[in-house]
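Fill in residues.
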C-alpha cells in the first residue's frame, strides 16, 4: 500500500479519514488501520466483502453489493456510497467510501470518512413540534402496520382529518390517498417505482391533476418493540422539472441542427449529436476547447472580433461562416449565437445553433454557374432569340436578335410584339406574321419557315413553353444559305452539262453494285440505251477473269479504298472492249457506305497500240538483255581474274613470307649452333629456335594441306564418343604459358554439366585451338576467356577476347582463305589467313557452326556450336 508521511497521518486523524482498496477479482477489501481507530470496529486489515457486510445495516449491505456489481459490468465509473455500520446498541457509524477503478479495472482505491450518530427510540422523541411544522408527511406504525401517529402534512395529502386515522391500518391511509383505487390487503393499485429504499406513488388530487408522492420507510427498535416511520414528500414539481429537463434533452439530442453550449470564456461545455455528425468531433474531444478549433482560416480576425463583441454585449449574432471538420473538410454553416443570461441577470455562457448549409451554398453556386452558362449561351447564340409572355409582350432578347432587327434590348423589353412586327417588317409580310403570332400566343407552334425581308432571307420558328408560360421565338439569317442554294442550282446545271458532254463515261452504283446512273458517254461505251440500264452490274457483262477483279474491287470500295483497275467486257452488241475504271466509294449523310462512283475509259484501241509497241520493245529488250548479260559475264570474268591475281599475289607473298621466316631461323641458327666454341647454354638456345621455327613451318604447311583436303572432300572425319571437358582442359594447358608470356589473363569456365557427345575429337579440338590461337594472337592486352555452355540442342564453346575487334563489314571476309581485315594486319600479326577458314569448314563438316560478334576496340566473341547428337 502507498507509504504515508507523518503530516498526512496527522491530517487523517483530524479528518477521521482512512484509505481503502477493493480487489474486484478476489472480492476482498483492504482497510487502513485508521478504519478500526475511527469506527471502533475490531476487523482485520484485509477481509472479504462478505465479512465487511456483516457489520453493515441491511440497506447499506445491499447498496454496496449493487454498486460493486455495477462497476464490474461497466454501468457506473465511480464508487460513491454512504454506509451505516452497527457499532453497538443504539449507535450507528456512518462511513463514506469514494473511489474509482484503475485502468485494468482490478482495484478500486479511495478515501473513507467516518462519523457517529445516535439512534433514538421513536417513543422517546418529542414529535409534537416536528410533526406539526414539517412540510414532509410523517406516519409512525407499530409492528402490525397500525398508525400510531400522523402529522398534518400526511393528513393533507389524503384529505382526511385528525380523528379519522385512529386505530386504522396503513392500508386505510393508502385507500384515502386514492379513493378510486382497488386494493387487496397491503397491495396498492398505484403506479409505483422503486428508487433505492423509497417508493414513488402517482395519485389523482382533488383538482383531478396528477400528483407524485415519494414514501420512504425507516425501521426503529425500542427494546423488544419494532416500529416503522414513513416519510412522505410531494415531488410533483420535481417530476415536472425532470420531465421538462428530459424533454429539453431529447429536443437537444434529436434536433437536426448543431447546438453548442459554452461558458462565459467560450470553452465548450456541451454539443449535441447533430454537431458530432456534422463536424466529426465527439463531446469528449471538444469539451473545454474553444470553438476556434473549427476555424477554416478563411475569415480574418476582424470577422471574429465583431462576432465576439456582439455576443459579449448581450446581443445575438447571426450569419454564415466557413468552418473545418475534424477530417479537414470545410463546410458552410448558418449560425445564431446568443448569450445565456440566468434569472439573476448573470452571463452563464453562450448558445450556438448552427445549420450545415454546404449543400445549399453549392446548389446556389451551381445554379448561378448554370444561369451564367445559360446566359452566355443565350447571348452568344448564332441565332436571334426572343421571349414573349402570353399577353404578347417582350420579356427578353439576345444580342443576335437585336443585331438582326437593328434594335436594342432596352427598346424592346415590355413592348408589344405586334408593334415590333408592324415597325420592322414590310406590310404584307407583317400582316401574314401577325396572324401566326395570335396562334403562338394561344400555345401553338410555328414550324421553321423562310421569309424574305427586302434583300435578306430569314428562317423563323416559335414554340410555347408551358413551364415558363412564355413563347420563345428563333430567327436565323439564312441569306448566305439562300444565295448558296441559288449558286448550287447554277453549279448543278453547269456540272450536269459537263457530265452529259464529257468524253469519259461516268457511272454510279448502289451498295449492291447495281448501276443506277450512266452518262451518255458511258451508255455509248456499253452500247445501251438509258432505259436498258435497269439493275445491271458490271459483272453481268464482264469476262470471267474480269469478274474476279470486279469482286475484289467492290470489296475495296466497301473498305473505303479508291483505286484504278482494268477489266474486259462484252457489250450488248457483242463487242469485246477493254476498260480503265477509276472508282471511289460514296457515303450517305451518316457516313455509311452507299455505293461507288466510277470514271470509265474505253482503252481498247490504246491497248492494241500499246501491245504493238510492247512487242517491238520486247524484242529490243531481249537483244539488249543478251548484250548486257554478255557484258556482265565479261566484266565478272575480268574482276574474277583480277581478284584471283590479287589473291594469288597476296597468297604467294604471304606464303613466301610465312615459309621464308621459319626457314631463315632454321638455316641461320643451325649454322650458329655448329660453332664449336659456343657454350652448351647458347647452343641449346639456338637449337630451341631451330625447333620452334620448324614447328612454325610445319603449321603453315599443314594449314595449306588441311584446307586443300577439306575443299577437295578428301579430308576424313571419324566420329566417336568424346569428352569435351578433357579437350578444353588440354587446350587451356597448351596456351596458358603463351598467354602469361604476353601478360594476358587467360580464363576457362564451364556453365553446367557438359555431357559427352559424338564427334571427331581431333577435328573438334582443332576448331577450338584455332579460335583460342586467333584470340591470343589479336589481343595485345586484357584477357581471353573460354566458356563451355550447355544449350537446348547444342553445346557452345565461346571464346571471348578484349582484343582489337573487327568491323561489321569484315565479319564474312575473315572466314575466306588468305584474308585478314587488311594487309597491314598480316604484317603486324603475321599468319596465312587460313586459321578461321579451316575452323569454319571443319565446323560445317561436324554439322556445327561458328558465329562472330565484334566491333573495333571492343574485342571479339567467337561461338562454336556443336549439336548434341
Amino acid at each position: 500500500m502507498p507509504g504515508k508521511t507523518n503530516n498526512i497521518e496527522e491530517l487523517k486523524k483530524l479528518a477521521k479519514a482512512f484509505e481503502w482498496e477493493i480487489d474486484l477479482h478476489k472480492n476482498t477489501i483492504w482497510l487502513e488501520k485508521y478504519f478500526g481507530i475511527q469506527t471502533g470496529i475490531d476487523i482485520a486489515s484485509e477481509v472479504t466483502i462478505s465479512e465487511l457486510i456483516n457489520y453493515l445495516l441491511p440497506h447499506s449491505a445491499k447498496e454496496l453489493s449493487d454498486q460493486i456489481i455495477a462497476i464490474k459490468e461497466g454501468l457506473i465509473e465511480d464508487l460513491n456510497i454512504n454506509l451505516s455500520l452497527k457499532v453497538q446498541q443504539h449507535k450507528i457509524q456512518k462511513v463514506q467510501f469514494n473511489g474509482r477503478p484503475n485502468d485494468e479495472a482490478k482495484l478500486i482505491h479511495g478515501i473513507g470518512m467516518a462519523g457517529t450518530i445516535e439512534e433514538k427510540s421513536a417513543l422517546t422523541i418529542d414529535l409534537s413540534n416536528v410533526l406539526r411544522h414539517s412540510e414532509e408527511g410523517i406516519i409512525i406504525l407499530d409492528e402490525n402496520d397500525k398508525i400510531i401517529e400522523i402529522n398534518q402534512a400526511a393528513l393533507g395529502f389524503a384529505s382526511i382529518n385528525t380523528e379519522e386515522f385512529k386505530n386504522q391500518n396503513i392500508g386505510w391511509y393508502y385507500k384515502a390517498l386514492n379513493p378510486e383505487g382497488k386494493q387487496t390487503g397491503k397491495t396498492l393499485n398505484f403506479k409505483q417505482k422503486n428508487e433505492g429504499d423509497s417508493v414513488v406513488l402517482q395519485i389523482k388530487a382533488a383538482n383531478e391533476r396528477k400528483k407524485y408522492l415519494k414514501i420512504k420507510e425507516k425501521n426503529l427498535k425500542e427494546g423488544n418493540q419494532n416500529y416503522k416511520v414513513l416519510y412522505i414528500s410531494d415531488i410533483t414539481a420535481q417530476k415536472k422539472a425532470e420531465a421538462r429537463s428530459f424533454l429539453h434533452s431529447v429536443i437537444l439530442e434529436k434536433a437536426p441542427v448543431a447546438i453548442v453550449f459554452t461558458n462565459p470564456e467560450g470553452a465548450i461545455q456541451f454539443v449535441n449529436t447533430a454537431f458530432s455528425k456534422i463536424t466529426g468531433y465527439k463531446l469528449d474531444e471538444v469539451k473545454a476547447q474553444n470553438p476556434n478549433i473549427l476555424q477554416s482560416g478563411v475569415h480574418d480576425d476582424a470577422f471574429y472580433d465583431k462576432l465576439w463583441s456582439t455576443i459579449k454585449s448581450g446581443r445575438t449574432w447571426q450569419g454564415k461562416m466557413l468552418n473545418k471538420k475534424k477530417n479537414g473538410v470545410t463546410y458552410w454553416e448558418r449560425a445564431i449565437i446568443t448569450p445565456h443570461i440566468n434569472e439573476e441577470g448573470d452571463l452563464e455562457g453562450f448558445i450556438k445553433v448552427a445549420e450545415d448549409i454546404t449543400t445549399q451554398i453549392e446548389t446556389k453556386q451551381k445554379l448561378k454557374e448554370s444561369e451564367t452558362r445559360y446566359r452566355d449561351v443565350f447571348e452568344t447564340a448564332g441565332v436571334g432569340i426572343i421571349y414573349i409572355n402570353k399577353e404578347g409582350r417582350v420579356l427578353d432578347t439576345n444580342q443576335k436578335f437585336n443585331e438582326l432587327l437593328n434594335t436594342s434590348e432596352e427598346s424592346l423589353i415590355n413592348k408589344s410584339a405586334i408593334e415590333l412586327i408592324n415597325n420592322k417588317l414590310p406590310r404584307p409580310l407583317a400582316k401574314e406574321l401577325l396572324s401566326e403570332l395570335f396562334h403562338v400566343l394561344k400555345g401553338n407552334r410555328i414550324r421553321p419557315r423562310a421569309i424574305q425581308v427586302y434583300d435578306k432571307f430569314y428562317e423563323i420558328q416559335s414554340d410555347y413553353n408551358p413551364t415558363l408560360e412564355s413563347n420563345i421565338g428563333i430567327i436565323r439569317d439564312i441569306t448566305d444559305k439562300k444565295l448558296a442554294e441559288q449558286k448550287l442550282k447554277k453549279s448543278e446545271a453547269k456540272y450536269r452539262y459537263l457530265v452529259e458532254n464529257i468524253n469519259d463515261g461516268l457511272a454510279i452504283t448502289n451498295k449492291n453494285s447495281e448501276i443506277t446512273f450512266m452518262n451518255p458517254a458511258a451508255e455509248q461505251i456499253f452500247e445501251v440505251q438509258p432505259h436498258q440500264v435497269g439493275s445491271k452490274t458490271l459483272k453481268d457483262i464482264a469476262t470471267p477473269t474480269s469478274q474476279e477483279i470486279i469482286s475484289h474491287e467492290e470489296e475495296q470500295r466497301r473498305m473505303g479504298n479508291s483505286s484504278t483497275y482494268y477489266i474486259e467486257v462484252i457489250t450488248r452488241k457483242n463487242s469485246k472492249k477493254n476498260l480503265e475504271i477509276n472508282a471511289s466509294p460514296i457515303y450517305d449523310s451518316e457516313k455509311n457506305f452507299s455505293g461507288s462512283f466510277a470514271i470509265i475509259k474505253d482503252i481498247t484501241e490504246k491497248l492494241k497500240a500499246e501491245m504493238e509497241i510492247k512487242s517491238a520493245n520486247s524484242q529490243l529488250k531481249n537483244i539488249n538483255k543478251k548484250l548486257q548479260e554478255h557484258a556482265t559475264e565479261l566484266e565478272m570474268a575480268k574482276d574474277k581474274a583480277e581478284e584471283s591475281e590479287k589473291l594469288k599475289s597476296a597468297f604467294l607473298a604471304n606464303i613466301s613470307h610465312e615459309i621464308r621466316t621459319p626457314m631463315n631461323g632454321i638455316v641461320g641458327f643451325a649454322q650458329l649452333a655448329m660453332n664449336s666454341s659456343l657454350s652448351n647454354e647458347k647452343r641449346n638456345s639456338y637449337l630451341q629456335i631451330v625447333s620452334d621455327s620448324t614447328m612454325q613451318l610445319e603449321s603453315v604447311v599443314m594449314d595449306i594441306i588441311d584446307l586443300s583436303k577439306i575443299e577437295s572432300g578428301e579430308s576424313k572425319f571419324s566420329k566417336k564418343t568424346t569428352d569435351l571437358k578433357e579437350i578444353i582442359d588440354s587446350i587451356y594447358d597448351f596456351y596458358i604459358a603463351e598467354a602469361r608470356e604476353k601478360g594476358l589473363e587467360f580464363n576457362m569456365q564451364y556453365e553446367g554439366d557438359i555431357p559427352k557427345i559424338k564427334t571427331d575429337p581431333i577435328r573438334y579440338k582443332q576448331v577450338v585451338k584455332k579460335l583460342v590461337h586467333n584470340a591470343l594472337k589479336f589481343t595485345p592486352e586484357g584477357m581471353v576467356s573460354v566458356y563451355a555452355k550447355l544449350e537446348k540442342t547444342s553445346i557452345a564453346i565461346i571464346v571471348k577476347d578484349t582484343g582489337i575487334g573487327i568491323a561489321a563489314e569484315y565479319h564474312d571476309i575473315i572466314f575466306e582463305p588468305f584474308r585478314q581485315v587488311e594487309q597491314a594486319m598480316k604484317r603486324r600479326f603475321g599468319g596465312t589467313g587460313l586459321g578461321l577458314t579451316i575452323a569454319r569448314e571443319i565446323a560445317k563438316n561436324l554439322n556445327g557452326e561458328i558465329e562472330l560478334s565484334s566491333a573495333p576496340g571492343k574485342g571479339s566473341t567467337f561461338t562454336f556450336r556443336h549439336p548434341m547428337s
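Residues 568 and 578 are 5 Å apart (CA to CA).
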